[in-house]
Amino acid sequence: MPKLFPRLGRRRALPVAAAGAVLLGLLLWWLLPLGEKPPSGTIVFSTGTSSGVYQEYGERLRTELAKDMPGLKVDLLGSAGSQENVQRVATGRADFTIAAADAVETYELAHGSGAGRLRGVARLYDDYVHLIVRSDSDIRSVADLRHKRVATGLPDSGVRLIADRVLTAAGIDPHRDITAAGDGIDTGPERLRQNKIDAFFWSGGLPTKGLVGLAKKAAFRFLPIDGDLVTKLHDEGQENRYYRATSIPESAYPVVQQGNEVPTIAVANLLITRTDVDPRLTEWLTRTVIKSRDGIGAHVHSAQLVDLRTAIYTDPLYLQEGARRYYRSVKP
C-alpha cells in the first residue's frame, strides 16, 4: 500500500522545513500581533464610582487585557471621577485612567503637578450631562434650581466641575444660591427617591446603570439643558470649549423619556496615561481597547462608540508614543 506521507530526502526536507518555519512565524504574528512576548508586571487603572460607567468599563477592560497579556496584573482603583483621575495619573498614583476632556484641560490650565507628563491613548465615548428631578417636582429648568437642594457630584469629580459651570451659566452661584450636596451616581438616585434632595447632576455614558436602576424604583424625569447655556459656557472660558450641545436620545432611558429626546451637553472621554509609562505596554493596551470594542460594548453600551477613526483625537493631549505606534501600524 502506498505511503500517504512518503519520506522526504534531505534536499527536499530543508525547503519544507523552512516553509514550515515561515508559516509558524506568521501564525505567531497573528496570535501575538506585535510579534513579541506580551508585556507583564502590574499597572494601576483609576476608574470611578460604583454604578458609574468608568467603573464598569474598567472591569470589562481588565478582563480583555488578561486575555492578551496574561502576565499583566491590573489593579482597579475607584475614584470620585475625572478630576481625581487626572491628578492620579499626572502624579504617578495611577498609570491609566478615563477622564473627560474638560477636566484634563482644566488641570493643564491650572498647571497641576505633572500636567506636562500627561498623554492621550484614545478618545473613547462621550459623557452626557443628566439633570434629574422627581416626576412630581415643580422644577422645570436649570433656573428653577435656585434655593433648592441640589447634588452636584463628589468633590474632585467631573460631575462637580460641569455642574458648577452649568449653574453659573444659568446665573446661579453654586456656593450661595443652592443647598449643595456631594452625592454621586452611587448615592444620588436613592436620596432623590427619599426626597432628601430636589435634583442631582450626573455626567456619564448612555445609559448609566445607576439611572436604569432608579427607573425601576421611582418615577423621575430629566431637565433640559438648552443650547443657550452651551453658548454661555463657551463665552466664559477656554476650558469650556469641549462642551457641545446635543440630546439624550429617546432610546437611552425609554421608560423615563417616553419617546422624547432631552436637550443637554456632551463632552468627550479620553483614555490617558503618562510619558514615562512603557510605550510597548501602551501599544498593546491600545490594541486591546480597539479590538475589544464589541465585546465590552455588549455590556457597556458606551463602549460601542469607540472607533479607530476617531480614537486618535485626544485633544488637549498629544498621543503617547506607544499609542502613536499602534495607530501607525494599522493606518491603511
Task: Please give the radius of gyration in angstroms.
Answer: 24 Å
What series of H and E elements makes up the topology? Answer: HEHEHEHEEHEHEHEHEHEHHHH
General form: globular
Mean pLDDT: 90
Helix content: 25-40%
Which key features would you list for this structure?
single chain, 332 residues, alpha/beta, ten-stranded mixed sheet, 13 helices, 38% helix, globular
Describe the 3D structure.
The structure is a single chain. This protein has helices at 10-31, 53-68, 82-91, 101-109, 158-169, 188-193, 209-215, 227-236, 254-257, 279-291, 293-297, 308-311, 321-329, and strands at 41-46, 72-77, 96-100, 118-134, 149-151, 179-181, 199-204, 220-222, 244-248, 262-274. It is globular, with a radius of gyration of 24 Å. Strands 1, 2, 3, 4, 5, 6, 7, 8, 9 and 10 form a 10-stranded mixed sheet that branches. Mean pLDDT is 90; it is low at 1-8, 10-14 and 24-31. α2 packs across α10 and α10 (279-291) crosses α13 (321-329). The chain is α/β, with parallel strands linked by helices. The protein is 38% helix and 20% strand.
Short summary:
With 332 residues, this protein is an alpha/beta fold.
Helix and strand topology:
Layout: H1 10-31, E1 41-46, H2 53-68, E2 72-77, H3 82-91, E3 96-100, H4 101-109, E4 118-134, E5 149-151, H5 158-169, E6 179-181, H6 188-193, E7 199-204, H7 209-215, E8 220-222, H8 227-236, E9 244-248, H9 254-257, E10 262-274, H10 279-291, H11 293-297, H12 308-311, H13 321-329
Parallel strand pairs: 1-2, 1-3, 5-6, 5-7
Antiparallel strand pairs: 3-10, 4-7, 4-8, 4-10, 9-10
Helix pairs in contact: 2-10, 10-13
